[in-house]
Protein 1
Amino acid sequence: MEHKLWGGRFTESTNPSLEKLNRSIDLDKRMFEEDIEGSKAYAKALNGIGLLTSTEVQAIHNGLEIVAKEWREGLFEIHQGDEDIHTANERRLKELIGSPATKLHVGRSRNDQVVTDMKLWLKSNLKRLDLHLRELISVIVSRASHEIEVMMPGYTHLQRAQPIRWSHYLLSHAWNLKNDSDRLEEILKHIDIMPLGSGALAGNPFNIDRVQLANSLNFEEITQNSMQAVSDRDFIAEFLFWASMLGIHLSRLAEDLIIYSSKEFEFITVDDSYSTGSSLMPQKRNPDSLELIRSIGGSLFGQCCSFMMVLKSLPSTYNKDLQSDKEAVFITFDKLTSILEVTSGTVKTLKVNQGRCKSALSFEMLATDVAYYLVRKGVPFRDAHCLAGQVVAEAEKKGVNICDLTLEELKEISSHFGVDIGKVWNYENSIEQYQAVGGTAKSSVLSQIRQLEAWFCKRNF
């Protein structure tokens, strides 16, 4: 029977089917750097309490450097008995340096080791994700700044509603993504709490200096309860939920752009580099990049939902069910990285068809402005809304645009209409009235751009 870290009390070999199911090395080998980093720090902590000599610590450090180099260069040989990254690294370290390697695990369990590795991995890689996210926001803000004069219809219920600036539309997505980035910063604070030194569940019996250990691994805090520490996967759930929300935001942006790129709209044209064609219909330009973003946005929630159900009924401390956290995290991370890169590229290279956007504006979209015109004449809004509705109905009855009704026809609806109603039939005037904070007026849009640019400058990780 091949030697296992836990095999002393067993007399029979593990069933091959269970062996295969139990192995996580194919997944968690991605954490080899973090596992080695944690082991180096732990060796120093053991030296601090006299359980390892300085010579042994140096041997462990040198051996782990060789192990890391083998992983980086693709030379590390995974053996059949390597259940996980911790087992594999310890086995290889023993082959390289002998006896000192067998002392490294004292007081430590894979239970506190794996959750430490996961936190170290997330601390490093979520910052990479945030860089991709901020790149996308930067692309959107840049386009909003350069294309601020483009006017288009705004929609509710996918029906034309009110005239807006294209930039205002773009920034609506930028603000969602900015909120996602801010939320990620909060999640990183929850990740930045070190569980190492919790043992299997009862704690560390050798009184290692956990605060110093945390400092050496660049954690801000340490966990305060060993049972909670080894079973805590709240930070995983938070990441998966965060990824789901970001995926939803990217999916909604993709859905808008798919609609806007259709021949029925033609507000935008997706660049050839982010489009595909049809194997049958030569004329087709399919926005596959956006469709894949939309699809993957949904699958991210599937990972979150699945892992939440794993957590739902677990008893206290560590259970092997928690091994599924790595699959959920790595799949989510890879997919999210991919669609963030593709979204940035698609948005950056798409063409806005300014003429088509403007030609989609219609005077019926100014019906609300008619109501506002009457409000400014002293008519209560509810009455003004009703009167504006009558204007729309009269135009429909006569088969004309509301701007084509004569002043006399308008006065039959309300005596408050005057010659100055002509100023209402102007899309830019309509847009520019929304100057309150958050509106689509040029001044407000420029203010949004400045705020987002200032936010970029404040981010420091």
Protein 2
Amino acid sequence: MPLLPPLIPHLKSPDLFGNLDRLPALGTPVCERTFVVLNPSTGELLAELPDMGVEETRAAIDKAYMAQPGWAALTARERSDILWRWHQLIVDHTDDLGAILTAEMGKPLAEAKSEISHAAAYLQWYAEEANRIYGETISAPSTDRRMLVIKQPIGVVGTITPWNFPASMVARKISPALAAGCTIVLKPAEQTPLVAGAMFALAHQAGFPEGVVNLVYASEGDAVGRELCGNPKVRKISFTGSTEVGRLLMRQCSDQIKKVSLELGGNAPFIVFDDADVDAAVDGAIQAKFRNAGQTCVSANRLYVQSGVHDEFVDKFVKRVRQLQVGDGFDPAVAIGPLIDQHALAKIESHIADAVEKGGIVRCGGKRIGTRGTFFQPTVLTGISSEMTVAQEETFGPLAAIINFDDADQVVHEANDTIYGLAAYFYASNLKRVWRVAEALEYGMVGINTGRMSSEAAPFGGVKQSGIGREGSRHGLEDYLEMKYLCMGGI
């Protein structure tokens, strides 16, 4: 069954859907098994796609393996030119890609278009970085030899992307790999595969040679993941998702000592000190907590507010949260769309119930909205203590849990008291405090007086059990290159 354009409003170029039927030309094998993609706002069927497994994944890997030497042999400028063309096609189709993304994932249309622009920015960045892969020369210990270092593409890369940012994660992962000279086999999340398919159709138009970019649709990731990790033709795995699955993939890659890049779970603290600009902190907290309905890996999960500004912050924050409109992402007045599925609804409800049972107070929200779709009221809890589940686990939903604190040193200790270390935020004006807290927080990324920090020019990634490696920036390119030392004698 093809995609159903009538269920995706505002499309300007329905021919994008026809392009998806040509995915076998991108290396995707034909498969008779199928699975369905649903709109989380309405529950309506959007598409029925081939449900691929080990056989199809292996065929895609073989295509990527055959194509890799030729892709790597192109000049950096030639690879850059194709990435530039893909970037421009993404820009030209921003409206349609945003509409597809909103239909399958639910986020507000303006937010979806912003994500498409962010994806295009990664393609632009690495189209430029493709020309900046530098080696080095080393002073030799004797006059009859020369020593130098070159960098070469690692080879075939297996990538697995999440449902919460189904466009930007595709671009952020594969654009540096392609710039480096690697070929790709990508499995998008089963909940949100359509925008990835549309982007790959545009990649085909951009002129990538056959076998360079390969898409694998699958309703379950286990079989595909095992093949990507176990197949010796795949030299690297790049994954964004839960820490639990990241551990599994590391184990599956360990027998081959396969290189991995992992961007995993978080439990981000958001700290507001007494000397902070409270209004700015409220703005930042709204952005860090409720963007994408709280379904981001860097979403503020624990909001620590110092006692001197606690009540003021809570009052202003709750007032703002009450104004957030929830509904279908195609409604221009909507700020928060649906959660991805029923499991997400059940998780946020369990976190609220646990907190209330242990003394937490619901200041606003706390309930599902309607019986159609997966909508939930944006919720604020106060009276939160460390033994509550919401203070220990990532909620991944529109739930803000506020913790009152007194001691500035103690709050940094509590913020670090987690296995995760992806992102942290804090608001303060004292420069001495800013430096000390920024350096003391055990996180790969720290937002200071801002609730949003992702950029293609900056390294994205975590420490501890939040991941390995970095995406974005010039550092993101290094993860797809191998360093080779050449020693030339008899000179």
Protein 3
Amino acid sequence: MTDFTLKGRHVLAMFVLGFGTIIAVNLTLAVNAVRTFPGLETANSYVASQEYDDRRAAQEALGWTVEATGESGVAAVALVDAHGLPADLRDMQAVIGRATTDDGERVMPQTGRAAAALEMPEGYWRVDVIATAPDGTAFEQRLTLHVTP
């Protein structure tokens, strides 16, 4: 056996080394997090909020709603007007993908003037519907759709 005696300086060195490692790792992670996403979505949030309110009011004035179904392995969306008829629009695009990532997103082929459908596996999917009215008013809606087998 050796004649090693644990002394105060050994305990101090263990604490400094242990906590120093933890602090160094935390600082590294924090610096990388801020460098890769600074959290800035817009330069002027007030102006962006005013523009958002204007776009929302114009979209609501259209009176359109999105009807979505996910039965028999088919995800389907339809854009309808206030009377339940297909919306009168210039163009429409529906993009479907997983709710937690943008990887693997697919554009749903149109099945009618204001409708789109695509065979999808069972599960929860995020659908982004983007359309333009004949007068140029933009319509955007994101919804979650459950597709059943």
